[in-house]
EAL domain-containing protein (Streptomyces rugosispiralis), 749 residues
Amino acid sequence: MTSESGGPRCDRGAGDAAGHPAPRENDPLRRFAGIWCRAVHPLAATKMTPDEFEGYLLPLAHRLSAALCSSPFDTEAAYEVGAALVDAQCTEPDALPAILGVIDAHLVSCSSPGAPFSRPSGESFPGPSDEPAHEPLADEEARARCVRLQHALAAGFVRELRERERDEQEAISRAAMAARTEAEKALHASEAKFQAVFEGAVIGVGIAGLDGEVLVVNDAMARMFGGMDFFRPGRKVTEFVHPDDVPGAHELYRELVNGERDHFRIEKPHYRDDGSELWTNLTVTLLRDSSGAPQYQLALAEDITEHRQLRERLRYEATHDELTGLPNRTLFLERLDQVLAADADAERFGVCYLDLDGFKAVNDSLGHVVGDGMLKAVAERLQRCVKPAELLARVGGDEFLALVTGPAAQADGAGLARRMLAALAEPVRIEGRELRVRASIGVVDGRAGEIGRAEVLRSADITMYRAKAAGGNRFEIADADSNARVIARHSLTNGLPSALEKGEFFIEYQPLVRLTDGTVRGAEALVRWLHPLHGVLGPDQFIPLAEDTGLIVPLGRWVLEQAARQARKWRDAAEDDESLRVNVNLSPCQLSHPTLVSDTVAVLENAGLCPSALCLEVTENDLIGADETALRPLRQLADLGVDIALDDFGTGYSNLSYLRRLPVSQLKLDRSFTRGMQRAPADPVDVKIVEGIVSLAHTLDLAVTVEGVETAVQAEHLRGLGCDTAQGWYYARPGPPERLHTLALADAS
Ligand code: C2E
Ligand code: CA
Ligand code: CA
């Protein structure tokens, strides 16, 4: 804002320079200010409202008017008014002409009370009545002064405008200066920081050209590699190859220096100058110039040698067996998975699963120290016969797995198994003892990609058990059929316990026919399993399993109950308490079961059946070697009146003199003796044997039943030989109990 200038004024008191307009309506300068405002306000960038703007202009109008009348004439005030108008933002391009136009048209008339005011309404515009009188200016003089005032105002206006622009530019350049200084400070700080990082970093930092030449490395990097000498001039990073570099490391590097990637990160081994190994966690970043072209490579390396050694030790411990130092199951499975996943067509493999025979006995009788010694000795022997490319692992207490791979000729599992057994042939010496080592081996041969890990292991396991079942100290080779049998057996065993609860068993009855008159004497109860998956299974398929698992005891009791109840029904239906009897098979487990006698008595009582209606069949083999204690339950039952039959007679060691001591009342002659009589002429030897047995049996007061009678010829022959009872397809196959009744009725008629 311009300062108020001194100098004489012709209109004092109309307002003050501080911007307080004169209050009177009829003030001609107020009118001037109004006109001025209307002309200029639209062209001003001011934030003032028109009223405010008019209030701002009024003192300026007074100053101009005063200057016009001043004596001596002075244009300084106009100069300052020009500046004041710039201050009020009247800086638009058309503003100055508008300002000057109003002055030119109205200043003289509004300032000189004596001069006529031209007003559109034609009214005269009287001057302020309290204004002191001053010398009216001559018209010409007034106009000339007005023009000069306009010039001065324009000059002040322009100068102020320029100063303003200069101030603004200065502010801008001052800001730019300040910014540059800040930027320089920051740059300096970051360079210092970079230097600090570079020098003081615990991490190795190095910069190399795109040709691989090492340009600079920091202390940490030099220390890592055993001194600055390592990075002697001319050394290129491309020389730092190592056999254990990750595959593809070279490709990553090539892409980086070609600008195809910005960085890569790998775990990289190096040899120091002294030959020792250094492992680094290496990050290489491409540095580009300002145009984006690749310029340098920056390497950040972290020494992870110790970390890696620790990791390797932990991994070794996790993948090796402590006792023998051999690889353990984890490592073996890793290698096996790799081999099985290989897609090389020619790649074959062989797996040998070795389990020591009777190792538990060694451990139990000679102690763990000897047991451990034996395992170590076995591991050493086996290791010696395994070739470097083959893998031997200890996978359990006394279990070892070996893996051979390669083209057909080399991947010979059986060959390896043979070598392993040969290696164990000589006894081992432990703590002064000579110990024989025996082992069973299951061998699985196959082709990569054709079989899964689980199947290989299961097959090896099954086959090893086959070798054990065959007497041990041998190897067996896996084959699908044997595996299938074992697996089926296994799955049946699993389903067996719940089958009884679920009512999956049922009984068929096969008639026993009196040979003299062809009448049905009774029937043998033969159990079947209606398996939900496999359909009807015969007893040969599950009785051995039931015996192994002990389920035979409840199952046998169930059969006995069912059969006794059935016999009761037959007898009721036949209205003849003597006619029909039922035969039930007993397993050796049941024979030795403490509640056999009491259970049987209870079953008979519950069914309301007399003991003589029941015949228990026991095989000859089950009784061989049985002493009097073992025979006691049978004798008790026999004493009660239950018939005991010696089943499958002739298949065991038939010590005939022994027969006398047994509490049996019947012999069931095995099918093998009667097969030779199915067709005429009968096998004379068979005839002689059967004749001899029958006569012996009758001498001992035993009745004879023949099994497996399939033809009329057979039946006739056996009747001629004096057999008492017959059973076989010729009469009837095993079937539902109802059928027996119709057979019996048919006989009777
Ligand atoms: P087993 O006691 O010798 O029973 C006779 C077997 O010979 C039955 O076989 C029967 O179907 C079959 N058979 C009968 N007539 C002929 C014939 O003319 N020709 C031929 N080739 N075979 C004939 P199955 O039913 O398969 O029973 C097999 C064995 O299962 C039985 O032999 C018996 O030892 C055992 N078994 C059956 N049921 C039970 C039971 O409830 N408990 C026990 N512990 N064993 C049972
Ligand atoms: Ca039988
Ligand atoms: Ca039999």
